């Protein structure tokens, strides 16, 4: 079945630095990928929809200049948290639609846990 | 009314119990429904798709009620390993909406 790989799994950075998270579809092409954030004991919150070759669509309340999304190829989307601050510490997950048998399935990356000191 | 609402948790049940979760959705045009399972500090993984005719996979049964706009997940003979958060996912057009999740804790 389709697999989505995310990297890095864990990252610790100093306040003010930028962090890039990669999301790759390993055996399928994904024209659309989704980026989520999840705070402890809370639900997944969709941040943005990443579209290959065009600008990402951001959810209300998500700063596009803070969370830069690049989807330059059909298998790679990146999320860059710019000038990270402690309140940006969270679990970031990407997902993409892939085929699983005769139907589609939303596959998730393993997630990236960001801790900003 | 929220777009997707799930039973508030946590559900604390003993091993062997039967437990059911519901998830209601507000958009009558929703066309696809899924149950995902998320373990602590891990990504969600697909548990079951939900079809109009209902579907069963071992101890798990998912059903869809379009008239009342809800989906359900029934777990029979609960195992310790079933402890997790269960998320319902509803797709309407291009919108993909997650419920907040219901936490299940199965104890021995």
Describe what you observe in this structure.
Chain A has strands at residues 4-7, 10-13, 19-25, 32-38, 45-51, 57-58, 67-73, 76-81, 90-100, 103-108, 112-116. With 117 residues, chain A is mostly beta strands. Chain B is mainly β and 108 residues long. Chain B has no helices and eleven strands. In chain B, strands 2, 4, 5, 9, 10 and 11 form a six-stranded mixed sheet that branches. In chain B, β4 (32-38) and β5 (45-50) form a beta hairpin. Chains A and B meet through β9 and β10 of A and β5 of B.
Summarize the amount of helix of chain A as a percent range. Answer: under 10%
Q: Please give the radius of gyration of chain B in angstroms.
A: 13 Å
Structural class of chain A: mainly beta
Summarize the largest interface: chains and residue counts.
A-B, 18 and 16 residues
Q: What's the total count of β strands of chain B?
A: 11
Mean pLDDT of chain B: 91
Low-confidence runs of at least 5 consecutive residues of chain B: none
The run of helices and strands of chain B is: EEEEEEEEEEE
Shape of chain A: globular
Number of helices of chain A: 0
Low-confidence stretches of chain A: none
Gist of the model:
The complex is a heterodimer of chains A (117) and B (108). Chain A is mostly beta strands and 117 residues long.
Features:
heterodimer, A: 117 residues, mainly beta, seven-stranded mixed β-sheet, four-stranded antiparallel β-sheet, 11 strands, B: 108 residues, five-stranded antiparallel β-sheet, 56% strand
Give the secondary structure arrangement, pairings included.
The complex is a heterodimer of chains A (117) and B (108).
Chain A: E1 4-7, E2 10-13, E3 19-25, E4 32-38, E5 45-51, E6 57-58, E7 67-73, E8 76-81, E9 90-100, E10 103-108, E11 112-116
Chain B: E1 4-6, E2 11-14, E3 19-25, E4 32-38, E5 45-50, E6 55-57, E7 60-65, E8 70-75, E9 84-92, E10 95-98, E11 102-107
Parallel strand pairs in B: 2-11
Antiparallel strand pairs in B: 1-3, 3-8, 4-5, 4-9, 6-7, 7-8, 9-10, 9-11
């Amino acid at each position: 079945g389709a697999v989505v790989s995310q990297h890095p799994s864990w990252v610790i950075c100093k306040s003010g630095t930028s962090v890039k998270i990669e999301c790759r579809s390993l055996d399928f092409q994904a024209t659309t990928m989704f980026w989520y954030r999840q705070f402890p004991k809370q639900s997944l919150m969709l941040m943005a929809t990443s579209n290959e070759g065009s600008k990402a669509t951001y959810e209300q309340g998500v700063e596009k200049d803070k969370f830069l999304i690049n989807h330059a190829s059909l298998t790679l989307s990146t999320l860059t948290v710019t000038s990270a601050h402690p309140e940006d510490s969270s679990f970031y997950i990407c997902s993409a639609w892939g085929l699983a048998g005769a139907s589609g399935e939303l596959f998730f990356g393993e997630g990236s846990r960001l801790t900003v000191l | 009314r929220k777009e997707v609402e799930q039973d508030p948790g946590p559900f604390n049940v003993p091993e062997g119990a039967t437990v059911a979760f519901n998830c209601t959705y507000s958009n009558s045009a929703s066309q696809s429904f899924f149950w995902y399972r998320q373990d602590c500090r891990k990504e969600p993984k697909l548990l079951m798709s939900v079809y109009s005719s209902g579907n069963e996979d071992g101890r798990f049964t998912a059903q869809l009620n379009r008239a009342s706009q809800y989906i359900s997940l029934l777990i029979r003979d609960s195992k310790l390993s079933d402890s997790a958060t269960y998320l319902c996912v509803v797709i309407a057009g291009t919108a993909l909406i997650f419920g907040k999740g219901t936490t299940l804790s199965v104890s021995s």
